[in-house]
């Protein structure tokens, strides 16, 4: 591999260095824009004790849900979970810990982590269970909560297209948390549907500049739909 | 008669203004989109990163990469934009969204709202609700006035863990339109055929009832 070329040949290579008890940030919203093959690679590796930071935890048998099957996840940091029966069972058994975090706070925690901001104040969660044990401060007569940034040992990201230098664009609402996770991983791995030559992507249209990206891997995707809604014929 | 879900959506839609950016929660709020008055442009924000949400796709145009915050497959309208979750919540938390409509379990006279957590029941999470209530200036809560067991949901103090503190000013129930002013509910309108007495009986928190409480009116589209 030379210079800025971030492309790796296999999923195995893409996840080299992932170890037990690490923190993994994952992009995606529901099942939309999830790094489904990188998740499958973590399952294959059998890495355990993971803290996974992701808006949701997939469903039974797909997405992050498959990491619950062999109890690879110790803790989830999410805004909304429980679309899967296994998650519920492990939570009630005490086998799984969950830290519920407001969705905007979760996004900002990743953004701040990637931007070198250790913590930030927000009005979100003031006076709620989320505020328990957290410092508050008043600005302009309103109370705000101090929330700490998140950094991951790994960030796993699903892009649409990337060039060999790791510049990434996302497709439609599959963007969601992906560009934020990409900034906040010590090692950021992006799997994409297409790898293009450098210069093919318009520099002004790059969502994630290659500076954040360590590895790019080409995949094929199932892209399962969680709630299939169509217009009824009139 | 108490309002149907469709009528509640219709009443909320009367609060829309031309040029509004609006975030609609799951349930009754989602139905509001069906009652946007003609000749009025409203742009729907979906917190997963979409401004300008359109209708559901057809079987031919369905796309796994194009969903709303309820995880339903959707389309975009002309002039839409798509962005990251951080950008989406910058809009919400920065107060750029003109109107937010969401459901709740309870609201109290101090504008507190409880909508996400019932102790000893499985907690799925708050999603974006805490950000929405903390960030929006103009929020309408839609909910039934009382539970199926007849327990009031309009309280002097919320009994459930909060979603947000002191952030609610307008509530539409199946019985009434109420506003919250200076630590009290104020009855502004009643559902057609619903008596002031019934509303008083089903409101546990302090309620001011003006001399004249008009009935809501519905214009057919």
Automatic annotation (TrEMBL), chain A:
Q: Transferase: is it a keyword of this entry?
A: yes
UniProt superkingdom: Bacteria
**Keywords of this protein's UniProt record, alphabetized?**
Transferase
- InterPro entries attached here? 3-oxoacid_CoA-transf_A, CoA_trans_fam_I, NagB/RpiA_transferase-like
Keyword Transferase on entry: yes
Any one GO MF term held by the record is: CoA-transferase activity
User: Under which name does UniProt file this protein?
Assistant: 3-oxoacid CoA-transferase subunit A
Species annotation: Marinomonas polaris DSM 16579
Which lineage? Bacteria, Pseudomonadati, Pseudomonadota, Gammaproteobacteria, Oceanospirillales
Automatic annotation (TrEMBL), chain B:
What's a Pfam family in this record? CoA_trans
Q: Which GO terms describe its molecular function?
A: CoA-transferase activity
So what family is this one in?
Answer: Belongs to the 3-oxoacid CoA-transferase subunit B family.
The name under which this protein is listed is: 3-oxoacid CoA-transferase subunit B
PANTHER family cross-referenced by the UniProt entry: KETOACID-COENZYME A TRANSFERASE, SUCCINYL-COA:3-KETOACID COENZYME A TRANSFERASE SUBUNIT B-RELATED
What is the scientific name of the source organism?
Marinomonas polaris DSM 16579
The record's keywords, sorted A to Z, are: Transferase
